[in-house]
Design brief:
Blueprint lengths: L9 E3 L2 E3 L33 E4 L4 H19 L12 E6 H7 L14 E6 L6 E6 L2 H16 L8 E4 L5 E5 L19 E2 L2 E2 L4 H12 L4 E3 L12 H14 L5 E6 L3 H4 L11 H17 L5 E4 L16 H13 L4 E5 L19 H6 L10 E6 L14 H4 L4 E7 L15 H9 L11 H5 L9 E6 L14 H12 L5 H12 L4 H21 L38 E2 L17 H8 L9 H4 L2 E2 L10 H24 L7 H33 L14 E3 L4 E3 L2 E4 L10 E4 L12 E6 L5 E10 L6 E7 L2 E8 L13 E11 L4 E7 L8 E8 L5
Parallel strand pairs: 3-4, 4-6, 8-11, 8-17, 11-12, 12-13, 13-14, 14-15, 15-16, 16-17
Antiparallel strand pairs: 1-2, 5-6, 5-7, 9-10, 18-19, 20-30, 21-24, 22-23, 24-29, 25-28, 25-30, 26-27, 26-29
The chain binds 4-O-methyl-beta-D-glucopyranuronic acid.
4-O-methyl-beta-D-glucopyranuronic acid (GCW) binds next to loops.
Length: 846
Amino acid sequence: MGQRKIDFYHRFAGVALEITLCAFAWSAAAQTADQAWLRSSPDGTSALQLRVRALGNGLLEQSAVRELQRGIGGAAKTSRLGQGRSAGAEIVVGTVEEVRMAFPSRPVPADLAPEGYGLSSTGSDAHLRIVVAGADERGTLYGAFALLRSLASEEDVAHLNLRDHPAMPVRWVDEWDNADGSIERGYAGRSIFFEGGKVRENLAPVAEYARLLASVGVNGCNVNNVNNAAPFLTPAMLRDLARVAGAMRPWGVRLALSVDIASPQKIGGLPTFDPLDPAVKAWWKAKADEIYALIPDFAGFTVKADSEGQPGPASFGRTPADAANLLAAALQSHGGVVLYRAFVYNHHLDWRDLKADRARAAYDIFHPLDGKFAPNVIVQTKEGPIDFQAREPVSPLFGGLTQTSQAMEIQVTQEYTGQQRHLVYLAPMWKQVLDFDLRSNGKSTPVKEVLAGAAFRQPLGGMVAVAGVGRDAWLGSPLALANLYAFGRLAWNPELDPAEIAAEWTRQTIGTNPEVVRTVVRMLMQSWPAYENYTGPLGMQTLTDITGSHYGPNIESSENNGWGQWHRADREGVGMDRSVATGTGYAGQYPPEVAKRYETAASTPDELLLFFHHVPYTYRLHSGKTVIQHIYDSHYQGADEAAKLVDEWASLKGRIDTRLYEQMRARLEYQAGHAIVWRDAIAEYFLKLSGIPDEQGRAGHHPGRLEAEDARLTGYKIIDATPWEDASGGKAVSCVLASENAPQRSCTAEWTYNGQAGRFNIAVRYFDLQPGAASFIFKVNGTTAANWTAAAALPSSRPHGDNSTRRTVRGIDLKPGDVLRVEGVPGQADPAALDYIEITPVGTGQ
Ligand code: GCW
């Protein structure tokens, strides 16, 4: 896209504008796109006196016009100068044919690709005319949003001449919403689509969501969970779903549905769901006809089959291609597509078998089927071979299907990457995957070209993000929305730079002040490396609770079970041998050049070493460090980086919206504390297992830390943490509720300070359990220094790394003999469990 940047004051229609978005409140009322990046002013275009009109009557063109009026109005409202100076100027929106008919003398792009647009302007001041020409109606809408983006990015829109089109045809979000209103792996409240087994009455948030999606070029939305999808195909539900499709239609976002391959049996009353059975075929055909009668622009089906307990064609000895083609045949005459997920694996693997490997599954199952899928089938593969970990290699299947259209599935909802409580901007990770060169046939084959259909000349392809939006401000955390934005932008154009995308998002969402933009972009760009550092580096995967929440640390949860997310840490070393020579052979699934790189430890990049090889802790990385020292260093570094995010955000105080500032400040402080929980769990686990000390003496040594189990306790009982690494020293104290009749009213832990006199920050680490809200009072010599309620919604109902929380009380003067005391008051089932306090001189850390 041709982008001309000029200085901070920019010219729009001869009017200098300074766009300061800080003025817009972060309103918590109705759920609107204003809570994300589409800030707009309700009082329309009048101030700028700029006419916006459509050349045609189509629904999407009308949306484009409304959106421009809304957006330009916003800009006009905040412009410093020139109110009314552009009377007579206009923006005209239409398809290429309409533009050609309306302005025969004006050159219009003749060869725009589907969904593409051209933007051009002629004249100036009162004669300025900007034309948004779309290849089709969707193109007009995308062109309108592009114009608004240019304006928000302060580009010179008075001399426009640019064109653009999406790189890949399928740009969908998947929502894992259940009919009861819950959302699988959703971290932002309940469903905007469903409640109580039905589609919600109020679909206004759905329309707003579609508007957000359209603004970044997303053209499909699959609204239901891939698990337990059968009830969504009942006639009553489909009639209701037509309302959802209707709410999204003005924004060019087509409805798609996850389907259960066993539906003919589960809801259709047939005795079988064998994909080759004629009655089953007829059932799907009739079902597709029923859907299209209600929803003529229905986009298609997504399928999870033979995976994690979902039924599939394997029950009848049939293949994924048999199942996919069955559905494809039903949709074909209507123009629908099937996104068949390659997330098919056996979760009962034998962990004692050193050749067993979940990472192999997708390639092993799908590669032999290449060329057997119908043309309207797209195989949808997660970006890595396991499951959205903090780092994985690129799935080898992208290079393994050369006669099949492919889509890549990524997660906006941060299942394994901090669940939106941690700031983790994922665009840099996605970009690495998109740029990864598979070297198929020894030639340049970046993943992005596979997804565009270009690498292997396939008709379809794309990117799909599991979004997980909910009623709590879309993604819960305001900054997490940068991920949704970036997904759309990268699916549209995978050449875009994640830092540029972050800047674009920040200017539209937070403010245009260059220092604000620089700071937010820096924070976003630092966040994924920081998270990877304090969770699971060197390709060990996210060392989280694999069988539970997928949130806090639980290092052994991945081992000794059939789920296959193994890292195989033992006393001598760590990592999974996936080489061809001595391991599972997974490395050999890549085209030869890449396979060779991953085959030996020496040629594997450090960041993926432990994904591919089992090495001793003393193995030296390319960086020169031993593996064990890297584990220590990266965890301390990651926690420091998380602390730095707090400081960076603090520098924005007074320069951005106050409510946004406070919301994010609290979240970032929580993250910095939880990063220490992670750091300590992993550093100490590997210290104990390897017996090799940290060269820098940090792991296992916490000079300022006073353990709760060593305190003078009243009421509090000492408990063992499970897993042990989730509490300092493996122990904590709990104000256990004695019985219903005689509950503990409160408990205390007390220490006498005997260090040097000075001013300190004192961190209190406690466990904020579900359900209930305990409260804590921290006293120094009997005087309350801080009190708070532990009412956060964190996973798990027992003291655990999921809910271990640090609160820092700052600037406390202490001298030897002072008495420090924590009083914990249980609230319902939350027993005010406590781990330690940590005293740090002011200015030397947290
Ligand atoms: O990572 C796993 C998730 C499941 C999810 C599954 C999948 C929808 O933990 O919650 O199920 O992936 O992608 O199908």
